[in-house]
Write a structure and sequence with these properties.
The protein is α/β, with parallel strands linked by helices and about 160 residues long. It has a single domain, classed as 3-Layer(aba) Sandwich (Rossmann fold). It is built from five helices and seven strands. A seven-stranded mixed β-sheet has the order 2-3-4-1-5-6-7, with helices on both faces. Helix 2 packs parallel to helix 3. The longest helix is centred in the middle third of the chain and has 15 residues. Bound molecules: guanosine-5'-diphosphate and magnesium ion (MG). Magnesium ion binds next to helix 1.
Amino acid sequence: GRPIVAIVGRPNVGKSSLFNRIAGNSHAVVHDTPGVTRDRNYADVEWEDRSFTIVDTGGLDIDPGDQLIDNVQSQVNAALAEASLVLFVVDARTGIMPHDMAVVDKLRASDKPIFLVVNKVDNDRFRNEAAEFYALGLAEPLWTSCVQNDGIRELLDRVVETL
Ligand code: GDP
Ligand code: MG
């Protein structure tokens, strides 16, 4: 079947925004997930003659309260189980947060390709300030601004080159 690309990250980093930009830029067909009313979670993407399904795992964000780390961990486990490639989204404006670190070791231990997507880079100031993301020990970061629609097509190019 189509390879699955999963979007993971803690709440509010822009996972759903990235999902919508990827779907929008590629004119993808978007599917609702049964039982999940808040987010539209699956889209079948065609890009440069390649096909994949993008999954916004952020439906797990919706549990309020203090189970956040457990939720992010189970989100990552599910993503690693089903995905061919994982987009790990972080927020350039907040920098690395404890909930980011909760998933980094798990992602690093995987033999699947992990893309570090530094989102909310709406201008170059944030790009310059975001050197700390190199210290996560993942691949070189990709910079996006979902608000500006910047970096999305480059991200799609990299994804289909790697799948
Ligand atoms: P999720 O919880 O990870 O799915 O994050 P959302 O996609 O719901 O976005 C969380 C908030 O960040 C929303 O207010 C978005 O408008 C905002 N946001 C998302 N992407 C960007 C971006 O590139 N730049 C800025 N400035 N805000 C963004
Ligand atoms: Mg979301």
